[in-house]
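Pilot study result, target chain (252 residues):
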Amino acid sequence: MTGTSDSDPARHQPELLSQTVVVIGGSSGIGLETARRARAKGAEVVLVGRNPDHLAQAAREVGARSTAALDATDAAALQRFFGDLPGSIDHVMVTAGRPHYGSLLEMDSAQVRDSLSGHVTMALDVTRNAIGRMRRGGTLIFMGDAGSRRVVPGIGIASAVSAVMPPFIAALALEIAPVRVNAIAPGFVDTPLSASVLEDQLDKRREELRSKLPIGRVVGPADVAALAVDIMANEALTGSTYDIDGGQQLVS
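Predicted structure:
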């Protein structure tokens, strides 16, 4: 029988020791917490975001190896970034972007196209530029939205966008194997993005969830970051979308 004993040094090494993790959308919220947790697990992290000042602050907080200020929806900028990045990449986490809520009939054609294809287009642009730099067993992690899965008033096109992601992730995982592809689909997460969407309704939503969710509290960025790093470390995981909503779908 083979295996490792409790005295084996390999069992006590950080799970992501000396691996490189790129976090696109890494200056705040889920992205920043994922970078923080990856660093704690031994990884070198590269933070990507739009705002140079926010990136610089985030880099100081987590001890990032480097940063890059760019718009992740700009395919040419992504190509330059990955082309200039030294060395190989182990994992890429993409948290950039935001859902569109509201009336379907109030959306113009461009908004519909952007909402339906934006996440997939950005994911494909990231994949095309990252894949040649990634090691076997590394993973690309994209974001879904479990909170928009149910069709209810006010959600609008977000439910359709949510439905697109799981089959897209599965198909992409088959196409680029042995590099892995997974998605994380949160419900409500208490982040600056949630605050900007809900504005003066934020506290009401927090209290509602605390009283209704089976876990008895609101899901935070650190919860999602813990799942992301587990997906990076476990090389048996690919082609799946993982819900993390504190049981929100059970009680909604």
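One observation from the pilot: Residues 105 and 207 are 31 Å apart (CA to CA). A full batch analysis is planned for the follow-on phase.
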